């Protein structure tokens, strides 16, 4: 505030100087302002200037007689006067500046001392406030650091506990890993043994396959030879059957003749020597008995081909059908029993269905099975059933097998 008042006082003095100079030189037409900046202080100087009226008036005087002049007019030297005036003015300015400088220096000393004292007091108060604030902040920071240290210690304790737990779990895992590694090694050894055994089995299996292939080839060649033999036998059988048919016709003709003769003798009451009862005569089959005129049930003597002794069979007549098919026509099918499997199935049909039959592949018909009562016959494979009569699930109570020739 003191410095500002000093500058204001200096400006007032300079203004006064300018005003006094202006009053002193009313003849001056204009002023020139010079401003000098020195640090934070600014100095303004007002310099007067002359308009040169005297020179113009003189010129006017000479101009009135310009036509009468024989030579150019010599103007008086006003620059030296102007310089003298300026030097006088500058001396006055210099004296004023020296006075101002002395005044400013004296005032500045006291003001600077007061400013320094105030600054020291203010600085001391500020430092005290700052110190108090720093102490409070330091105490607060110390308290916070204590809290943080406590938290860090607690966290460190928890981390140590977790580290111990992790160490224990790691130890357990390492132990389990070692056990599993040992088990894996054992399994690997077992796998090696199994692989070795598998390789051996594969070698044996390959040898067996080679052996089976050889046996298959041998069997195929044997089957081929047997097929050829069977074909030859079939041809011979056909020829023998043809010959046998001729002989059978001749025998039938003879039997008819004998029957006619016997009938004639019976009508005439003649008893042939060595004659036998009609029932005791020999016949080839049931059809032969029927064609001979016997239609009563009884025991008859049947001579079967290729058998030296005759067989006595009880013959009984029957009429009717059993569904769509009244008889089973066999086309060379073999008869299968429990000890002789002649069917076309991988299993033994006679053993599974508890009875011998002309099985093809354990079909839905079997007249040599077991009897099941009503309600228990459904879903039974080994029951007495005839597919063409009432289906494969109907259990028959009993069956009677009747045989006749194909051409009967």
TrEMBL record:
Residues 312-407 form the Fibrinogen C-terminal domain. GO terms for molecular function: identical protein binding; receptor ligand activity; receptor tyrosine kinase binding. Residues 161-250 form a coiled coil. The keyword Hydrolase does not apply. It is found in: Secreted. InterPro entries: ANG-1/2/4, FIB_ANG-like, Fibrinogen-like_C, Fibrinogen_a/b/g_C_1, Fibrinogen_a/b/g_C_dom, Fibrinogen_CS. Pfam families: ANG-1, Fibrinogen_C. Its main location: secreted. The keyword Signal applies. One of its GO terms (cellular component) is extracellular space. Keywords: Angiogenesis, Coiled coil, Disulfide bond, Glycoprotein, Secreted, Signal. Residues 1-20 form the signal peptide. Gene3D superfamilies: Gamma Fibrinogen, chain A, domain 1. GO terms for biological process: blood coagulation; cell-substrate adhesion; glomerulus vasculature development; hemopoiesis; heparin proteoglycan biosynthetic process; in utero embryonic development; negative regulation of blood coagulation; negative regulation of cell adhesion. SMART domains: FBG. This is Angiopoietin 1. The lineage of its organism: Eukaryota, Metazoa, Chordata, Craniata, Vertebrata.
